[in-house]
Amino acid sequence: MSWDENSLPAWTNSPPTGLGAQAALPGDMGGISVRWQARQIITELLAETDPASEWTRAQLRALFEAHPDNPEHVLLEHLTATTELANAENSAIPVGVASRAVAAPEPVPFTRRSRNRIEAILSDKMLMTAFQPIRRLPEGQVIGVEALTRFVSDDGASADHWFNEAESVGLGTDLELAALHRALSAAQAVPGHMFIALNLTPATCADPRIAGLLEHSQLAMDRIVIDLNGPIPLDQYPALTAAIAPLRRRGLRIAVNGAEAGFTSMDQVLELHPDVIKLDRSFIAGIESSPGQRLRAAAMGELARYIDAALGAQGVETPEELEAVTELGMAAAQGYLLGRPSVHPLDWNAWIRSESETATSGPAS
């Protein structure tokens, strides 16, 4: 299956814009930014009616009245206050615990602190979505975006750290669902001819709540690509395939990591039958000069052709790597060379305008 209008959604026959296309951001697309997402988070929090979160709402109202034109500042001030409160609560050690902790520290306080951090993120919805462009090869047109979660926190922890920490305290699926909700909301303003790649672990993808979130997102199902993040345990294959089968019949696409597909039996690959195989940085780094890397990538290309899947490259960072993956016949690529992930519209002005115009102008005559 090729990575075009017959495999991933809404491609046009307009002339390619090229990898170097630069254009100004259209006025109606400027909302996908830190400010827009911050304002949306605040609006959702203020609309809640749970008495337990009245302190949060009162603080946000006061901060927003003081800084009505700067929702980013409001969120950061709110974050500082809640962090200080959480630290104060975590430092209050119950009577009888201190003497034991001196002799033999227990992991319970760390677990409690981790859980409090994740619950604070969930209750305050301190999540944002960055998008990274995915370009069709060899033309360079942007055909989709990958949604990447960014956390509003004061410690600079990576998204992987947050998700791993959430998983360690039993809140991994809850955090993934919150991130998915935010990404689906932000994706409303992505041009309609582009697909949206969303990262989910196999366990979360099989969660029955996923179907409801996707169905109520107002995104056409054939614009959604679920990028399965992590290996699929053998005992999860039946539940996963059963959960996504109704959505796939309506156009949902599934992407898998090539490293994991390569170490899975052919029977399991055929059972899942992914629409896209993505080769990550472990395949791409040095591919222009390493025969071994090229051989690995070529082997994955053969697997993709055998199951009629598209083959894409992630983590393309140099022109030489881009040339190599193009020569190998990969259908699409993303990476720092082709566009960095960002929540800020100024970082999108190299591609949003041209792709929006392509979608509205129709096929070339």
What would your notes on this structure say?
With 365 residues, the protein is an alpha/beta fold. The longest helix has 21 residues, at 71-91. It has 16 helices and eight strands. Mean pLDDT is 76; it is low at 4-32 and 86-110. The two termini are 26 Å apart. It folds into two domains: 34-124; 126-361, EAL domain (TIM Barrel). Helix 2 packs antiparallel against helix 3 (71-91) and helix 3 (71-91) packs antiparallel against helix 5 (108-124). 35% of the residues are buried. It has helices at 34-47, 54-66, 71-91, 97-103, 108-124, 159-168, 172-186, 202-205, 208-215, 237-249, 258-262, 266-272, 281-284, 291-306, 319-327, 352-361, and strands at residues 127-136, 142-151, 195-200, 224-228, 253-257, 276-279, 310-313, 332-333. The protein has an eight-stranded mixed β-barrel with strand order 1-2-3-4-5-6-7-8, surrounded by four helices. 47% of the residues lie in helices and 13% in strands. InterPro entries: Cyclic-di-GMP_PDE-like, EAL_dom, EAL_sf.
